[in-house]
Specification:
Blueprint lengths: L1 E6 L4 H13 L3 E2 L8 H11 L6 H20 L4 E5 L7 H8 L3 E6 L2 H14 L4 E6 L2 H4 L12 E5 L9 H15 L4 E7 L4 H7 L6 H17 L8 E8 L4 E8 L3 E5 L2 E5 L4 E8 L3 H10 L2 E9 L2 E8 L7
Parallel strand pairs: 1-5, 2-12, 3-4, 3-6, 4-5, 6-7
Antiparallel strand pairs: 7-14, 8-9, 9-12, 10-11, 13-14
Helix pairs in contact: 2-9, 3-4
The structure holds N,N,N-trimethyl-histidine (AVJ).
N,N,N-trimethyl-histidine binds next to α9 and β12.
Amino acid sequence: MSFRFVDFPLGRDDLQSDVLAGLTASPKSIPPKYFYDEQGCRLFELICAQPEYALTRTERALMESRLPEIAAAIGAVDCIVEPGAGDCGKVRLLIEALHPRGLVVLDIAGRALAEAAESLSRDVPGLAVTALGMDFIHDLEAAAPCLAEGRRLVYYPGSSIGNFAPDEAATLLARFHRLAGADGQLLIGFDLKKDPVTLHRAYNDAAGITAAFNLNLLERLNRELGADFDPARFRHYAYYNPVQGRIEMHLVSLAGQTVTVSGQRFHFALGETLHTENSYKYRRDEFSAIAEGAGWRPAGEWEERGFAIHLYRQGDTRSPH
Ligand code: AVJ
């Protein structure tokens, strides 16, 4: 077994400057990557187990049932790279099917990632595992020197791409394209457009886990930025916006109130919202158009119960990005 962990610690400054910028803007917003402190990671895993949130289960079922086909379409791979790998639970199936020599996992929650990746490396003898604790939205290019030569597969499951607006998604996929290099491939999972009521339920689970996940962001800011949010004075509010094709999550202020964050004061009017996440849903053709615009050529599509997995290869690189 071989394992190494490289930490590119998330500066308190990044959190602080992003949060202050987001609270100064109108409407107020905070990037969803900041959900994932220790408690946020725990709550996200609980969300994935809620009956209304089928996304994670459906993707797993699809990967399990179609793995032979997917693996055959991918072919031989030397190195798998997974941005946002979290608990490294999804990549295990692919490793068993593809037997790469190297695995590079990236996540903003570095400590949890390191533990999960080390345990994976113990379970798979001969696999060289590198865990990079980093905000890959910022620092993806810093991962390049850690990748083994040869055929690379970027694996981006879980509809994480849904957090990005279509133009940002295209930019990120173009960066994956450069990271994957010649012969590189991309295996990506995304949530499909579906009945808005089903989507609404998925982000408004009866047990209130998604609400706790959303409100935990305020607890994090209280702890890490010395803020004084009162979570009882904000309401989790998530709904499907069919015009934009996305779930929007907000924290709506239940009163007129002033909050202090890092010594700066911010006023929330009654009913004002702090926009915490977008989760875009795509049709297959919409998604392919974005990936192709980023230089990727379609090489396989699998779909089940409202979730899709697409495989792309290096196309002719006329990427505009
Ligand atoms: C991890 C971004 C795919 O958007 O469905 C789940 C995060 N937020 N419930 C998603 C999330 C609320 C999730 N992604």
